[in-house]
TrEMBL record:
Bilayer-spanning residue ranges: 34-51, 71-88, 94-111
Record has Transmembrane helix as a keyword: yes
Keywords, sorted A to Z: Membrane, Transmembrane, Transmembrane helix
Official protein name in the record: DMT family protein
Pfam families, A to Z: DMT_6
Signal peptide boundaries: none
Amino acid sequence: MPVWLQTALMLSLSNVFMTFAWYGHLRTLNQKPWFIAALISWGIAFFEYLIQVPANRIGYSVLSVSQLKIMQEVITLSIFVPFSVLFMQQPLKLDYLWAGLCLLGAVYFIFRS
């Protein structure tokens, strides 16, 4: 498997954990004290880091740190939009499309060399 694909898959999985750690508590733990939500979020984020750190180390063997960052931002939006709509029950907005187009521009400029 190419390094860039392995990195992208690992970053995607870690981003699922990150998204739930950062935002999942807003729906599932909103009646609990904030410190309970923080402890649970930290527990979820632990698993994110177990995947994200090796993914970045693997990716850095062939990608620049800027390329890794832009890849992560594209993955973040790709994970966040379905999460927002399906889990958080937020409306799908046209703004997501515009943000995605801006990220495509970022991908072009950071990967063109």
